[in-house]
Structures are given as C-alpha cells and as structure tokens.
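Give me structure tokens for this 312-residue protein.
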Amino acid sequence: MLAMLMLTGVSFAQGFPSKPIRLVSPYGTIGLPDVLARLVAAKMSESMGQPVIVDNKPGAGGIIAYQIVAKAAPDGYMVLLVADSDYAVTPALHATLPYDPGRDFTPVTQALRGTFFLAANSSLGVNSVQELIALAKARPGLNYGSPGSGQTHHLAMAQFAIMAGVNLTHIPYKGVAQATPALLSGDVSVMFVTLPSVLPHVKAGKLRLLAAGSAQRSPLMPDLPTVAESGLPGFEARISMGFVVPAATPRAIIDQLNAQFVKALKSPDTETRLVSFGMEVVAGTPEQFAAQLSRDQEHYPRLVRQIGLKID
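Here you go.
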C-alpha cells in the first residue's frame, strides 16, 4: 500500500503543475513580505509555465490566510507564506485556533532570515548593552516601543528584559510606521528595529545602534557586537520567513516546489532586491525549515507564558 501511494504521488508530480498555483500571503500589499511573494511568484511563473498568483489575505494575525491554506487540498496548488511572528507566536497568543501549525502544514523552504538591531535614542546617552542595562536598573520602568503587542519586536525586548533582570515598560504602537517616529522623538527610549528602517537616522546621529540580535555578528554591521556577546549569552532576536503547503502534500510535489523556490530566491536580481531589505536569503531544504519552525514553536510560547501575554 505504501509503495502504491508513493507511486501515485510520483505520477501526480510528473504532471505538476497543470494549472495556476495560488501563493497566499497573510500580509497586505506593501512591505517586505509582499515584495518577497511577488518576486518569487514572477520567477516561478516563468520557470514552471503556469501562473503563480499572489493572493493577499491580511488580518487577524494571519489566522485568515492560515485557515484558507490549512483547509486546501494537499496537491501543491496552494502555498502559504509564513513568518515566525504568525507561525509560532499567533498560536501562543490564542487559546483556540481553527488550525494547528504543527499538524496542518508541511514546510517547503525557509526563504529569508533577518536580524533585529537594538537601537536607542541618542539623547538617552547610552553606547552599549551594558550601559543600557545599568541605566534600566537605575531607572526602573524605562520604556521601549514596538509595532504592536505580541509582535516579534515586542517579544525580543521582553526577552531582553528577562535575561538582563530589568524592569522595562512596553509602549505598543499600531505598526513600524508609528513606532519608529516615537523612537526618533524620544517618546520611547529603545526598540528592536530592522536596519533599513533606521540606518539614515543612525547616520544622522539621531539613533544609536547598541547591538545586533543575531547569534553571530551581522555582515551588515560586522563591527557591532551582538547582544549575546555583550553580556546576555544565548540571546537571539531575528526575523524568519518561508513557505509551507497543506499537510499530506506528496513529497514529490514538495521537492518540485522546493527546487522552484530555491531557484527563484537565488536568482541574482531577486537576491539583490531582498538583501536591500537587510535580509539574508536562506533557500534551504524542507528539513532545515522544519527544524527552524520547531525551534520557534518551543521558544515563542515559552516566552509568551513568561511575560503573561494573551489575546484570548
């Protein structure tokens, strides 16, 4: 029976794709996720001979898009763009969901990996992680911003506070577009940020980068120490995006999709465009992405419990 199922999957894969593929995105039509989706969709449409159509389904922390794909036929014709912020964090924030990430999806490939940088308003007068920790201990309740409660920026700062043993006050905003000006004005003192969003302000002297949240120093800022090497070993704050399909999708189909995504992501013009967002193109195997998602599903729920954060 197993051999018959495997042969059926291979036979089905030989005619794949025979119709358009739907790439569902939990995000709107602006920003890095949409750029990623449309770049790979265009490349894959050319390579596969069938349209790959980006279908934006924003809202509800990704729940709408996830539910659509979880209920789709496992035939490779519907793919979901995922990020750690919705794949691992959203389930930790909700008591019930209409899907189970670990049960309802199968990884295809990780696409991007990015680094959060710890930035401070220059008027705060700190130049390092250790100086920030010392100031936070002297001034309990020092505030920090984020683009929203439960966003990975927020959780990174909450993790920082726990590991540093300091009491910080969270000021959530409705998005990066609102949180960044608050950091610039000094309404909030510190925040985890992506490099492209603040680099002009760093060069102008309005903001100061204190450390990179990555496990190793970022190639974007090789002289900047990491948070881990600045006194908080084991700390890591990053961004991850990739693609999954409904569970039970035949492995032969997954392998075809993986090869197409990797080819699209590694094309020089696509990679150059994505690197301009401060991201690293990963484009690995399904197993590598599965391992990363598994680590996220352990880390973020544990952190959410530690800070007592719940939406419902």
